[in-house]
Amino acid sequence: MPKRVLQGVVVSNKGNKTVVVKVERRIMDPVYKKFIRRSKNYHAHDENNGHKEGDVVRIEETKPISKLKRWVVLETAS
Questions:
Q1: Quick check: 4 and 21 in contact, CB under 8 A?
Q2: What angle is formed at CA 42 by the lines to CA 37 and CA 47, rounded to 5 degrees?
Q3: Domain range enclosing 26
Q4: For this UniProt entry, which residues form the secretion signal (predicted)?
């Protein structure tokens, strides 16, 4: 089974080797047929502490690294 890859914005890099990435998706409201933005925060492993707040990054699903971290940062998206 392939690993999921998501794209989002770094909202926090306070932890050591950890970044919090906000991923937004758009869903259509079933009644009003308007698009609504839903967002979720993911804790991702950043080995070199190389990303700062505001960076757009791609994250990939991986085995559990800690209590909250199940994602790893792949690269900075352009």
A1: no
A2: 140
A3: 5-76
A4: none
pTM of the model: 0.90
CA pair distance 10, 60, nearest whole angstrom: 14
Residue closest to 5 by CA, chosen among 65, 56, 74:
74
CATH code where residue 64 lies: 2.40.50.140
- pLDDT tens over the chain, length 78 residues: 889 999 999 999 999 999 999 999 999 999 999 999 999 999 999 999 999 999 999 999 999 999 999 999 999 986
Question: For residue 39, what are the β-bridge partners?
Answer: 24
Q: Are 72 and 60 in contact (CB under 8 A)?
A: yes
Report yes or no: 5 and 20 within 8 Å, Cβ to Cβ: no
Give the count of domains, the chain: 1
Q: Which tokens go with 53?
A: 């707040």
